[in-house]
């Protein structure tokens, strides 16, 4: 049953395998265009046009980079060529050495593939009309919302079962990838708009990750609990599953970064001359805010929500008050995983979709959850928002590629001064 | 199928370089987790400490000191200084950073903080910021620090040794590695037999009981963290010398997880278990890796199912699934004693 589920998952995600080797002509000129995204990770830039000219200035051929940033122009003969990058197709990236474009004097020897290098600089963020601390604060709220959405499940699972679930990040990756399949691979558009396939993909991501979360509770965690396995061995099981699924994602998706189709939409909206936001980011903040308010209300008003908080607070007391704890744990797994999957789509929308995105986010989730108080629902919300803001604001002081260090340091410091977190109770930490 | 190369890679895994440094790291982790009950998920940072302590001393800090203070330290002097820095100074600093906030807290907090420290170190070291890159050379890592070591090698660089398994330099590294491994295992055995080691076990079994007998549990846990970290650093240093490079991405969190697999496979809480666990793990991994690669290159496994690059990923899947199954069904490992050590919650 478990293996069948994995096989189904692999079949579902079977797309974007490695590019098959082509029948290469004798001489080619090509290259691989790479850049660094906001998190400082290497990504490959897709959809950039290159044109190759011969010594007399005649166009020999053009090529566009594929998803791996690779471009290749077949040549008829060896010789000296020049290569021009079409700057209009750079999607906000900028050449580090604009004076080297077009690149002239590219010597191609017989029977060789000549590699050319176009180093890209930092992505240009037009900050003309923003005040940097306010801009970073707003960016931080966006990041914090995504962390919060993913982390609520982590915190509630911990609160209800005591499990520190290291495989939670893989739910985030899975959600982003399901969104990717519907939105990019299958292009499930209806009503003639790419938005519909993204929304549909997000809905499917939520539903499928929720179902898989429930399935996992049923097949793995419930059995472990019934066998009386210790929490530490359950923790190690979750680490094993995390590695296992991460490498299944790598196996199926490849090591490259995938982008949702609207990644290149760069239209910015200005707010009172204080900060600017991309349109998709406004959507993320508004939508994420609605979901988080909805979750908080659900936890406060609905029967299941109250029961979840009760079990997280004191399991034995909840059980003796007539709450069906196993039932509540099942709902926690389903809702928590579904939220993580949805958060994954939003995270993929802000950055990119790759095989270890969830695992990278996991540490930030831990930081947020610990900050707010491990095991509490509202603490996870609050702590994640603070962590997100802290990460972005810290770039005022430290280089952007080390911004996650700030959140992790905050995690260590909070454990020194208030180990139970902002909303936690001291007795939790034993 | 080239069975000779499959068998060769099996034996390289069982006794080769990978086995040695993972066994050393696993001995350290065994002291942390198996004997003291500390849930350390940042063993990779201790390994990185060993590698970078040596590499930075020889390649960046040492030459800078020579330039700025007018000293004239030779490369071999710097090498031995680097071993001291990598084995003692760095691990002690990291252990204090990890231990001070968390050793008073419950086990899962230590797990999170140790991962956080390991990631902080890796992110900082691979930062392209000029002020840091000057010392650590960003994600490309540091090279050119292992010359002194290989100059001491009595083996010819052109010849192959031990049934063609190793080149001369590898043979020297592996021999030194075995000796170090034997010494470390002996030290660990003596430590565990000593009164100090019995206190560690007492803390593992019941910290409150140990405390009520007047033992300062916090201090003992810190000492265990430091000594286990030193063992891990020795492992990381041997790894760096073996590859002649110290790179931040050689010390990702997954490396820690693999050390855990080796430890749990052998059985936490037994002195020899991590050695056997690492040996079996790498024998198994190398065997399956070469076996699958041979299958792919001989078209026994169709390309649609698996390509050469995907073989490397399959071994990680096996490792992950193996760890999950072990922890679920046989948490005491091969040699472990269920009563004494069953990944218990303390």
| Biggest sheet details of chain B | 2 strands, antiparallel
Mean pLDDT value of chain A: 80
- C-alpha Rg of chain B, in Å? 21 Å
Domain count of chain A = 2
The largest contact between protein chains, plus residue counts on each side, is: A-B, 48 and 52 residues
Q: How many DSSP E strands of chain A?
A: 11
CATH architecture of the largest domain in chain A: Orthogonal Bundle
User: What is the succession of H and E elements of chain B?
Assistant: HHHHHHEHEEHHHHEHHH
Taken as a percent bin, the fraction of beta residues of chain B is: under 5%
Structural class of chain B: mainly alpha
CATH structural class of the largest domain in chain A: Mainly Alpha
Query: What proportion of the residues of chain B is helical, as a percent range?
Result: over 70%
Placed side by side, the strands forming the largest sheet of chain B appear as 1-4
By secondary-structure content and strand pairing, the structural class of chain A works out as: alpha+beta
What general form of chain B does the structure show?
Answer: globular
In a nutshell, what does this entry contain?
The complex is a heterodimer of chains A (430) and B (346). Chain A has 430 residues and is α+β, with helices and mostly antiparallel strands. Chain A has 12 helices and 11 strands.
């Amino acid at each position: 049953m478990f293996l069948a589920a994995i096989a189904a998952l692999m079949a579902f995600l079977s797309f974007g395998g490695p590019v098959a080797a082509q029948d290469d002509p004798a001489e080619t000129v090509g290259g691989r265009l790479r850049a660094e995204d906001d998190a400082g990770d290497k990504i490959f830039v897709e959809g950039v046009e290159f044109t190759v000219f011969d010594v007399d200035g005649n166009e020999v051929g053009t090529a566009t980079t594929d998803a791996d940033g690779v471009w290749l122009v077949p040549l008829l003969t060896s010789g000296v060529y020049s290569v021009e990058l079409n700057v209009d197709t750079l999607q906000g990236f900028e050449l580090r050495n604009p004076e080297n474009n077009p690149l002239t004097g590219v010597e191609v020897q017989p029977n060789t593939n000549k590699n050319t290098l176009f180093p890209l600089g930092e992505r240009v963020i037009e900050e003309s009309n923003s005040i940097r601390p306010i801009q970073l604060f707003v960016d931080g709220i966006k990041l914090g919302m995504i962390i919060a959405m993913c982390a609520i499940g982590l915190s509630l699972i911990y609160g209800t079962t005591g499990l520190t679930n290291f495989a939670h990040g893989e739910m985030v990756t899975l959600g982003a990838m399901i969104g990717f399949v519907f939105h990019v691979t299958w292009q499930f558009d209806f009503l003639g708009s790419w938005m519909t396939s993204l929304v549909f993909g997000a809905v499917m991501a939520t539903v499928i990750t929720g179902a898989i979360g429930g399935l996992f509770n049923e097949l793995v965690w419930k059995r472990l609990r019934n066998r009386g396995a210790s929490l530490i061995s359950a923790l190690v099981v979750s680490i094993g599953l995390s590695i296992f699924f991460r490498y299944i994602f790598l196996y199926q998706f490849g090591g490259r970064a995938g982008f949702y189709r609207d990644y290149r939409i760069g239209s910015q909206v200005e707010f009172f001359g204080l900060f600017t936001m991309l349109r998709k980011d406004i959507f993320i903040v508004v939508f994420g805010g609605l979901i988080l308010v909805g979750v908080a209300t659900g936890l406060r008003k609905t029967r299941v929500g109250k029961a979840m908080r009760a079990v997280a607070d004191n399991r034995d007391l909840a059980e003796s008050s007539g709450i069906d704890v196993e039932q509540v744990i099942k709902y926690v797994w389903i809702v928590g995983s579904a939220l993580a999957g949805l958060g994954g789509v939003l995270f993929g929308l802000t950055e990119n979709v790759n095989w270890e995105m969830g695992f990278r986010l996991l540490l930030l989730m831990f930081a947020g959850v610990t900050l707010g108080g491990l095991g509490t629902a509202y603490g996870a919300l609050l702590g994640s928002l603070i962590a997100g803001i802290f990460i972005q604001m810290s770039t005022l002081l430290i280089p952007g590629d080390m911004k996650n260090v700030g959140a992790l340091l905050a995690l260590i410091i909070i454990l020194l001064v208030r180990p139970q977190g902002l909303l936690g109770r001291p007795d939790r930490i034993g | 199928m080239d069975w000779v190369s499959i068998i060769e890679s099996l034996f390289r895994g069982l006794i080769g370089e990978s086995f040695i440094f993972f066994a050393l790291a696993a001995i350290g982790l065994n002291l942390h987790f198996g004997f003291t009950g500390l849930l350390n998920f940042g063993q990779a940072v201790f390994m990185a400490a060993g590698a970078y302590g040596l590499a930075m001393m020889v390649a960046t800090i040492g030459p800078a000191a020579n330039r700025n203070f007018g000293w004239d330290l030779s490369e071999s002097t710097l090498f031995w200084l680097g071993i001291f820095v990598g084995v003692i100074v760095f691990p002690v600093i990291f252990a204090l950073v990890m231990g001070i906030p968390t050793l008073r807290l419950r086990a899962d907090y230590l797990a999170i903080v140790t991962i956080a420290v390991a990631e902080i170190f890796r992110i900082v070291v691979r930062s392209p910021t000029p002020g840091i890159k000057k010392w650590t050379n960003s994600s490309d890592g540091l090279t050119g620090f292992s010359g002194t070591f290989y100059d001491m090698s009595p083996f010819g660089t052109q010849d192959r040794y031990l049934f063609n398994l190793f080149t001369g330099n590898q043979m020297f590294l592996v021999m030194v590695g075995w000796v170090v491994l034997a010494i470390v295992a002996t030290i660990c055995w003596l430590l565990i037999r000593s009164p100090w080691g019995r206190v560690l076990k007492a803390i593992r079994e019941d910290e409150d009981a140990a405390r009520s007998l007047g033992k300062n549990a916090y201090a003992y846990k810190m000492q265990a963290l430091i000594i286990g970290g030193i063992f891990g650093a020795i492992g990381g240093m041997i790894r760096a010398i073996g590859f002649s490079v110290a790179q931040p991405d050689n010390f990702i969190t997954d490396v820690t997880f693999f050390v855990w697999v080796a430890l749990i496979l052998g059985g936490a809480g037994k002195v020899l278990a991590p050695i056997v666990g690492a040996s079996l793990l790498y024998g198994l991994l190398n065997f399956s890796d070469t076996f699958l690669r041979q299958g792919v290159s001989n078209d026994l496994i169709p390309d649609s199912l698996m390509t050469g690059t995907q073989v490397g990923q399959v071994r990680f899947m096996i490792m992950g699934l193996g760890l999950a199954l072990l922890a679920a069904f046989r948490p005491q490992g091969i040699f472990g004693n269920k009563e004494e050590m069953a990944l218990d919650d303390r």
